[in-house]
Amino acid sequence: MKKSLLFFVLSGLVFIISCNGKKDAHTQRAADSLRRVDSIAKIDSARKAAELAIPRDTALDNVARFIAGLPQLENNSLAKLEKDKYWIDYRTSMDENWKKMYTGRLVKMQEWERDVFSKSVNDTLRLFYPFSGPDFLHANFLYPRTKEYIMAALEPIREVPSFEKISERDRDRFLDSLGRSLRDIFGKSYFITNHMQKDLWQIKGVLPLFYFFIERSGYEMLEQKFISLDTTGKEQVIEGKNINKVKTPGVKFKLRNTETKQLKTVYYFAVSISNDGLKIRPGLVKFIKERGPYNTFVKSASYLMHDGKQFSNIRSLVLSNAVSLFQDDTGVPYRFFENKPEWKGMFFGNYVPPVEDFARGLYQASLDSAFKKSAQPMPFSLGYHWSTRKQHYMLFAKEHVGKNK
Prior knowledge:
The protein is an alpha/beta fold. The chain has one domain. About 45% of the residues lie in helices and about 15% in strands. The protein contains 12 helices and 10 strands. A 10-stranded mixed sheet has the order 4-3-5-6-2-1-7-8-10-9, with helices on both faces. A hairpin with a 5-residue loop joins strand 5 and strand 6. Helix 2 crosses helix 8 and helix 4 runs parallel beside helix 6. The longest helix is centred in the N-terminal third of the chain and has 52 residues. The chain is globular, with a radius of gyration of 27 Å. The N and C termini lie far apart (about 65 Å).
């Protein structure tokens, strides 16, 4: 009897010690977890503080605001130029055009992106935007949380002139040409190549258009670098005066949203991305591949990737490295996604045949059937069918399509 009692006492002690040990271990794990959370919070706080501490490039941002038709933030030499009648008229015109575009298109895009699109893409990834021109505007409104954009098109890069050093007449001509170059974006949502070739001659490249979209979209300029890529895809900083002497001319912007304080990096390469263009630029191909997987956006791209002879390589680059592709029918042909289980598709708007300029042989009957079967509404117009507003877009993705993140 005494032995049994002793056995139970000892067993009880072992049980109590064991429970206490488990409790202590659990408490220790909880404490470790809290320390990790606290450490992550401190790192995140330090990172945000460091980002906020990055100074605005005052000279660059001042020029960008002047070009965007926005008043200077402090008294400077450009503030004096803003008193001239030509700049006042320019600002009034740009304010009116921006407001009309924002209420008619951009605010609808914002709401649709928030309520529909953001639930179907991983917007923490980079964005690759081929055939983009200087269209930071729509890339930013469709992918507002993306931190890095890679854009490529033919339109050239040039240094922006010093407005204080040119005549009032030349400043007036510059802003008049810039306003004309923006007319297609305001009214149609895309640039027309023939118009751009004429307008960019006067404003000397895409930088003024980038400045306009960046500043009007609520960002400030932290940094601008002219760059090139070597054969391995490594960035090389060059002087602006040498931008036309390199094989892969590019510009790199660092931006900060003035409201959310989010940082963004934007690359733009002024190159041909045809098969021949990519062949002589292996560094660009490596640069794009190394930044995958990424989201891809294609808009009003002249059906170039339907051409298997001249643009098959950029098409393959997109299909091999993109996690998602949001495009109208001017992008990758539907046959590359049809009956492909690795790609899941969503359809928005109403499929209609290509406009007259591109009608020959580009109608896709199977794509028409797919839209009629499962298309969702699209509340804004974006692309070649701006006159009828019967737009259509597709989202093909390897993950997240139709699912909340």
